């Protein structure tokens, strides 16, 4: 199973759509800051499961701030990250929240900086920003039937 992960599109959806078209993922995930941009994904890929959470710029959003999603045999905590204080590179609260909920994967955005690491048995991934910033990026998460996880960050040209 492959999930395409996007964050912080800030109304710039063309790169996100281009990446999703090229990847043809099994699941789409948008981690907020203009969560309504995910509607472009929903329109173009109506048969692909789409999970969306709200970010700090998503005022009056209908989407949850945090969600737990099942990606094959793996549980993932998805959030924008601002409610876990990820602003300065400290993801410890996010990791703890994932561990507390039995998640093997934690996906977040907010910082506009792509990052991946493993902490305390949790794969932690920030796809960076697909919308505005110096380095534009997105990510894929491949989940294997045995529960293995492979995360990859992709930069836009």
Helix/strand/pairing category: alpha/beta
> What is the count of helical runs?
3
Instruction: Give, in order, the helices and strands.
Output: EHEHEEEHEEEEE
Per CATH, the architecture is 4-Layer Sandwich
- For the record, give the distance between the C-alpha atoms at the N and C termini, rounded to a whole number: 26 Å
Give me a quick take on this structure:
By secondary structure, the protein is of the alpha/beta class. It is built from 3 helices and 10 strands. It has a single domain, classed as Purple Acid Phosphatase, chain A, domain 2 (4-Layer Sandwich), CATH 3.60.21.
Architecture overview:
- Strand 5, helix 3 (92-100) and strand 6 form a beta-alpha-beta unit.
- The strands form two sheets. This protein has a five-stranded mixed beta sheet, with helices on one face. The protein has a five-stranded mixed beta sheet with strand order 4-5-6-8-7, covered by helices on one side.
- It is globular.
- It contains three helices and ten strands, in the order βαβαβββαβββββ.
- By secondary structure, the chain is an alpha/beta fold.
- The chain has one domain (2-155): Purple Acid Phosphatase, chain A, domain 2 (4-Layer Sandwich).
- It has helices spanning 14-23, 38-44, 92-100, and strands spanning 2-6, 27-30, 50-52, 66-71, 74-79, 105-107, 115-119, 122-126, 137-143, 149-155.
What labels describe this entry?
157 residues; alpha/beta; Purple Acid Phosphatase, chain A, domain 2; five-stranded mixed sheet
